[in-house]
Amino acid sequence: MKIAITGKGGVGKTTVSALLSYIYASEGRKVIAVDADPDANLASALGISKDEIKKIRPIAEITELIEERTGAKPGSSGGIFRLNPTVDDIPEGFGYKCGNIILLVMGKSRPAASGCFCPEHALLRRLLRHLVIERGEVVIADMEAGIEHLTRGTAGGVDAFIVVVEPGQRSLQTAESVKNLAEGLGVKRVCVIANKVRNEHDLVFIKNNLKDVEYLGAISFDDTIMESDIQGIPSYKASPHILEEAVRIKKNLEKAV
User: Fold this and answer.
1) H-type helices in 131-239, by residue range?
2) pTM over 0.85
3) Mean pLDDT score, 114-131
4) Could you name the CATH architecture of 2-255?
């Protein structure tokens, strides 16, 4: 399974990414959890301690690795560098291992709106393609609110592109935009997970406003999830009910694969 997860900021995509990573890992599967959001929070959602998180170096910030693999210094643009750098050893060599999960934090590859195509961006794109196309593990990528890291060649290898939504017009508008972008890149399956659902009214609103998008299931609004974030406890430990809902979603996800 190769899964990319996105959604509007704050909808809970990182929580969903952590839940699915945990469920697959608990079944004995090898999982590579990719934090491809510049505002990296997946380590916390997986229950990694603050002291350990400080040891994790985002790939985009490992300057010596970028220069070695691309032949150019990070931050440079317009010069000559390798567009197909070697990346197959990066998960084991630079990822953080916790049980059956290897966490890879991608980091931010370039200044916002710079428009450059830089060595670190080339490395991150090549790494993501390697994970999706060439690896045998379950790969779950927590993306930013878009599909910047995906290329046409990578998108075709994604089994499911999941958009996390919450009750609200803006969240659903983001889902529609992401769906169109993903399909334009050749993603075969775009799905939706409803999060923070308070009642049946919320669920009806979301379903009525989905336009030709596969619905995988819902995760209830739960105060214990907010409290677990404050205390640094992963959601799969904080709420057995939420974990059960995520297990059902995972089963629905696999039905059509």
Assistant:
1) 152-155, 169-184, 200-209, 223-231, 235-238
2) yes
3) 81
4) 3-Layer(aba) Sandwich (3.40)
